[in-house]
Each structure stands twice: as C-alpha cells, then as structure tokens.
Amino acid sequence: MAATTVRGVVSAEPPESFARRLRQSLRTPIGAAALAAALLLAALAVAGPVVFGDQASKIDTSAMNQGVSGAHLLGTDSLGRDIAARVIVATRLTLRLGLSATAIGLVGGLLLGLAPSVLGRRAGRAVTGVVGVLVAFPGLLFVLFLATIFGIGSTGAVLAIGLALVPTLARLIQNLATSVAGSDYVATARILGVGRFRIVVRHVLPNIVEPVVLFAAQAATGSLIAFAGLSFLGLGVQSPDYDWGRLLNEGLSRIYVNPASALAPGVAVVLAGLVFALLGEAVAQTGGRRTAARAVPAARTPVAMNADGGLAQTPADVDGDALAQLTHLRVSFPGGRTAVRDVSLSVAAGEAVGLVGESGSGKSLTALALAHLVPYPGHVQGVVRFDGHDLLADPRSGRRLGAELAMVFQDPMTSLNPALRVGRQLAEVSEVHLGQSRKAALARAVDRLAAVGIPDPERRARQRPHEYSGGMRQRAFIGMGLMAEPRLIIADEPTTALDVTVQKQVLELLGRVRADSGAALLLISHDLGVVAEVCDRVLVMYAGRVVEELPVSRLFQGAAHPYTRALIGAIPTMTTDLDRELATIPGRPPEPGEEISGCAFATRCAFARDRCRGELPVLAPAAGGAGHRVACWYPRAGDGGTVTDDTDTDDTDTGITRAESEAVA
Amino acid sequence: MSSLELRGVGVRYGRFTAVEGVDLVVPDGSVTGLVGGSGSGKSTVGKAVVGLAPLTAGRILVDGADQPRRPGRTAVQLVFQNPYASLDPRLSIGAAVAEALPKARRAERAAEVARLLGLVGIDPARAVQLPEALSGGQRQRVALARALAARPGVLIADEVTSALDVSVQGAVLNLLRRLQRDLGFALLFISHDLAVVRYLCDQIAVLESGRLVECGPTAEVMARPAHETTRTLLSCIPALPARTAPEAT
C-alpha cells in the first residue's frame, strides 16, 4: 500500500526547482520570444559600440542633415553622423542607465520593504510610515526634485530615477511581505526559533519574488522612458554622451525634414520596454507554478464510458418522473483531468438525496453541473435534465433555474456580498426572477428571513453580512434560496464551515424548509453523519463515479461496497474502542488525471481480485433490496455485516500499522 | 518530559477579550483535550502558549518556568489546523523538517530528517519534494515531523484533522497517539470533535466564550457532563445509527 502511494506521486510529480521551472516557462511562446529578444538586445549593447562606434562618431561635414539613403539608412544628423549607427551605439548607455536605476530602486525597495519584517515592531512601524509619506509624493515631482539636487548629468539622473522608484517598490514589497509574514508557516518558523533575518531570506523572499520581478520589469520599462524624458528635457545625459532620449531630442527638431531620425530612437525605447515586459512575464509565469506547463500525462482516459453496461443498468435513463436527472455526466478539464468520470443520478420531486465522497471525488462538480455552474474551462458532457428540460442542449432553459433551483454553498462568508445589505440581496432574487417591485421584494425578504429563524428580521434585513454570525449567514443564504419557490435545493457542504452546535440548527432548518415547501434536496457532504440525519437516499462517490446507492436506513448496516464500509468504519464515534487504533483506508484516491483500469478502489481494497483490477464494475442491483445498487464485483454480503465489517477495518488498519511500525523501527 | 501549566491566562485584542482566567494543567506525558465551539477561544489558548497571541493576564509555565512572551524556540511546539497553509510552498519538505532540527552537521541532519519522515510514515526519498506534491494527510504528517524535530516536551495540536478527510483523519490520529505514547510528550489536543477527543485524551477541558467551564477526566466528563456547554456539545454530535461496534466480535 505504501508502495502504491509512493509510485503514484513520485513519478507523476518530480520536485521542481525554480531553475527547472524557469527553463520550462522559457519554452513557452512568450518565454522563447522574451529570451530571443533579450539576447538580441544584450548583443546590441555589447557589440554595438565596438562595431558601429567609429561610424557613429565620424563627423562628415559633406553629409550633414541628410535624409534616408542607401549609405545612411536613417539619414545623418547636423554633424553628418550616421543616425542608425548612433541609435545602435546608444543601446549600451541607455540600457546601463535604465538597469542601474532599476537596480537602485530594487535594492532600496527591498531594504525598506523588508525592514519592517526584520526590525522590531516600533522601528518597523516608523519605516512603514516613512514609506507611506514618500508614496504620497507625486512621482514625477520626486524625480525632478532629485534630479535638481543631484545635478544635471547621467549620474544624477540614475540616482534620481532610481530613488524615485524606491517608495512604490518598498510599499509593494511591504504589503507582500506582510501577507507572507501572517501565514502559518512563518508562525511555525517563529515558534521553531528561526531568526527574523533567516525567516525573511528563507520564507518571505521566495514567496514574493514573482510579483516583485514583474513589477521590477515594469519599473525598468518605466525608467527607460523616464530617462528618455529627462534627456529630452536636457536634464539627463549630456553631450558628448548620448542615449536614445538625447537622440530623440536631436531628431525631434527635424521631424518634418527627416521623420526617421526622431522615430528610430522612439521605436527603440518602445521595443526595449516590450522586451523587459516580456521577460517579466516569462519569469512571473515561472512563479505561477501550476500554469507553467506542468507535464500532465497525456489524456488517454477512455472517452466511451462503458456505454453498453452503463446504459442498460441506469434506471435514471427511463425515469420520467425525476425532477432533476444527470445521465452519464462527465466533467473534464484541459490537460486530461477528469473530475467526474461517469455519474448518473436522479432526484425525484420532494426527495432528499445525499451525495457523499472524499475531497476530489467529484461530488461538488456533479452538483455544480446540475446547477449549470461548472467553472470555466470545465467541459460538461452527458445529459443534464431539470424538470424535463435538457439544460445542455438548450442553454436558455437554464434561466428557469434561477427561480426553481436554490443553491447553498459551503462558506457563508463568501457567498453573500459583503457590500450589500442582506435584505437587499434577498430581494434581488424576486425582482429578477419574479418581476416583483422593490418594495414587495423587500417585504418578501423579511418574511423569508423570519422563515429561516432569524430573530428580528426587519432590523436584520437592514444589516450587512459582517454583522451576522456564521450560522446566521448560512440561514440568510438558505432564505435567499427560498425567495422564489424552489423545487430543488442543492446544498454543497452547507455545514462544513460551521460550528457543531450551529451545524445542527442548519440541518434542522433544511429539514423544516423541505417539509414546508416540498422541495427536493441534494445534499453534498463528506460527513456521513450529516447525510444520514437529513437524507432518504445516499449516493457514494469515488474517483468521479457513483460506487454505491442505497437508502439511508441501510447505510450503516447494509452497505455493500468495501469503500462505503471503510468510510463508515473510519468515523470515530462515542463508542469507538479506545484500545484499538482507528480504522483507516490505506493508500490514496486516484488523481483526476490518472488512468484507471478496472475498479478505482481496487488498489486500496482488501478484497480486490484480478477481475477488479481489469474490469470496471458498473452499478447493479445489490442483494440487499430495493433501491440498493452497488458497483462492485464482490460486494460485501448482507445485513448487519458484523463480521465482514470488522475484518475490513481490521485489515486496513493493521496495514498502516505495519508500515509505520517498520518506519519507527 | 515536560508539563504545561496555565495560571489565570487571559488574552485581549484591544477591547475584545478572547480568553479570560483560564487555569489548566497538562501533566507530563498525558493528553488533554481542549474543546469548545468556534469562537470559544480554544485556538487562542494554544497560540498564547507559544507566544503567537498576546498574553494580557496570568502566567504560562512549562516545567515550572515561565514561557517567553514572544515566539521563539521553547519546549513547546504547535501543529496548525490547515496543512495547506502551514508548510512553505517554496521549501522542500526535507528542508522544512531540517529547519526545526537543533544545530548539527549536515550529514547528521540529513539522517535525522530521514528518520523523522520515516517516523510519520513518509518515504524519506520524498524529502526533496515540495509540499504541493503531497496530499493533505501527508502534509499534516510532515508538519508533525517538523514539530517533533524540535524535540518538544509539550505539543499543541490545533484541530489537526479538521481539514482532512475522514479516511485520512484516522491515520493521522493513530500516528499522533502512537507518537505521544512512544515519545512521552505532553499533548494539548484542541478540537471540536468530541468523539475524537474521547478517543485520544486523558482529560477534557471545555471552553465557552474564553472561559474554562468544565475540566476533568475524559470518561467522567463524557458520562456526567456538569456544564450546559458540555452537554450541548455532546448532543450535537450527529447521531450515527447504531452500527456494530468493533468489540462485538
């Protein structure tokens, strides 16, 4: 079992160093373009003055102020010097100035930005205050101010522009560092006695490097333009030196005579800026670790989903009475990740169905598919019917969902808009879907808040979500679902984020709402206890498929699938034997991208045989009785399940114990 | 190894009192469960012990000596609830564990990291991997290995399994219980799940609005809860219909 885990993960995801990821991202179109352009720019800066230096400084009185010609691609200036050569030669100085200014800004920004993390609280606050004041100072004014202080010339300009960058960079780095410093891993490091300086170097810097690099690249572009501006104003580079800004200055006076002389240095500034931006983008891509072309194993997951067997054995196909129905649902994401492999389920009017599974089993996406809410770029296949309408074939029928389907999400903190009053948010539902007037809708909102047990609903309706407790927010959100007359309520882990005491209230509320409105309920949860309390029927999902479907009354005694039984066995209860280890399920569930032959649970199943590993079991009626179906070649037998249940948990348990005691030894 | 003692501990954030007048002793080598609803201040107590929450009243003693007010290396280690947030995404798990080790030579460190990872059931060959390559349960094991690397006399486990699936929870709890018994550290186990607390803990302390309302041996508190809060917490465990208990065989 340990071997399974190790093989699966190690081979799929080798450790990725920054250098490796950088190489990967340089292979993308943006990365390759950035690299090529940067190399070209560097080559020009290094070789330009060597190759074209003489040509650029050669004064030729016979060819003054010439236009574009074969001999002078961009014409000549007032002393007859070749402008094309001068633009190329100026690359070195321009880049040197721009990059040194950026470097000054970056170093200063890092020092000031990280200082609060390293210094004590009081000194840190002082630094933050100083940076705050400097940021408030207009940037251009700051540059001009510094340029005047440092005097005219390129050194002064570098210092001025570099220092002007410091406040904004410092502020950015401060903010980023503060968010990292608040993380649990930094707290852990502090408890471990890691010094402040070390924390900054090891934990803070690596986690903020991408946005800083991206910003620095932008700053480099900005400083190129700033130099051009300063030189153009005569504050920057002084004769006989020249950068693109000075060339621009010289060329501009003759723009009507020879446009190329002014445009060329301008274009050079723009192009160099683009190169910096591209480079920053490429590096930032390296940081966005998941986007940078992680080698996902090519999708060879079977497209045809056990068509023959599956179709024949799904009563959902012919269930005309179902309110909501999913048939052979498959939800996949680019890169071969298939979160829902093949799910068929139906919810009859007024029925309460539970959908149970561990994280990654695809249960939430199944529910989202039913509500037409699968996030981009998820791809939904199969048939999704609600009240007889095919939602996938006829997108407009999705509008019906607004009034007839209510969705309750896990986190009531994020599902309500913090900026709007609760009453207003609820009222919006009736206004949009039922066309009620603002006043009538608000009255209904107050009525619904009362219905979900919110005390003093009129006052509460005028409050914003942050004035509600977590449990009250969830109630209000359920109330929002009740604004219209929903026929189906989908509740996705509605109590997971709540306190145990509040959980009970919310579950009771869901039960009461169902009794009052006659709505059907699809309850998604990882908690079998929650599902057992509310639902009539339970579907157990594993690796994107339904592995068992049974009435709640049979869940704890008559489950037939080894996975369901193991899941039940793993829940600690008030009667768990204190002298034994808790039951566990060894191994890990397959990844969404993984190719599975046969039963997905076979690698973790104590009862798996060869057939399980080679052939995919489909849902078939179980021996237990009506409404009980199981996808298992060798379902566990019978009611009570005393003996099998026990050996089951025992086996898995000792499996882990053995592996670990070896490790201890 | 060590005992932890809280005397009249109070934590205030501005005008908000998170914890007030908590007296609690976690004896050497035993497990104390700290339970309560959300907002009852149970996590704050844990944070105060390691200096992550400001102690505004009372004393915290480890082996009779005052804990420093600021976080730093002490005999107490804390494992956070969310293993997705408590490991640095840019630091390999081996490096994360090594960071907690006392200063030693490089070769010794590598061997010690391998031993600790083995101890929590992670293949030492994975030390070079980043946390993103690990599942939630595996991450929590690494976090545990990191805490153990500092050789704590007292370990605080703050809701260490509530971010994990039930099938993984058992493995982490088994591991924690076995390590506690083998290594003998005092364990303050913060949780809202009474079934888990019952399984793991020798004594239970119940918090309500930042105050300790009940404290006693696990079996006794479970059988005869004296305080209303304890009774409510007990009654809120979703009742699983009776199923065959393992001892039936």
How would you sum up this structure, described in words?
The complex is a heterodimer of chains A (665) and B (249). Chain A is α/β, with parallel strands linked by helices and 665 residues long. Chain A has three domains: 25-297, MetI-like (MetI-like fold, Orthogonal Bundle); 315-346 and 366-499, P-loop containing nucleotide triphosphate hydrolases (Rossmann fold), CATH 3.40.50; 559-578 and 591-665, no CATH class. Chain A is elongated, with a radius of gyration of 34 Å. In chain A, helix 9 (196-233) runs parallel beside helix 10 and helix 16 (422-433) runs parallel beside helix 19 (470-481). Chain A has helices spanning 2-12, 18-26, 29-57, 83-118, 121-136, 139-150, 154-181, 184-191, 196-233, 244-252, 259-287, 307-312, 363-370, 401-404, 412-415, 422-433, 438-451, 457-461, 470-481, 500-517, 528-534, 552-558, 562-569, 610-614, 642-664, and strands at 322-333, 337-348, 352-356, 379-386, 389-390, 405-408, 488-492, 520-525, 537-542, 545-551, 620-621, 629-630. Residues 1-15, 289-318 and 639-665 of chain A have low confidence and may be disordered. In chain A, 54% of the residues lie in helices and 11% in strands. Chain B has 249 residues and is of the alpha/beta class. Chain B has two domains: 1-71 and 153-161 and 185-249, P-loop containing nucleotide triphosphate hydrolases (Rossmann fold); 76-151. Chain B is built from eight helices and ten strands. Chain B has helices spanning 42-49, 93-100, 106-119, 136-149, 166-183, 194-200, 218-223, 228-235, and strands at 4-13, 16-26, 31-35, 55-62, 65-66, 76-79, 154-158, 186-191, 203-208, 211-217. In chain B, a hairpin with a 2-residue loop joins strand 9 and strand 10 (211-217). In chain B, helix 2 packs parallel to helix 4 (136-149) and helix 3 (106-119) crosses helix 4 (136-149). The relative contact order of chain B is 0.18. Chains A and B meet through helix 1, helix 8, helix 9, helix 20 and helix 21 of A and strand 6, helix 2, helix 4, helix 5 and helix 6 of B.
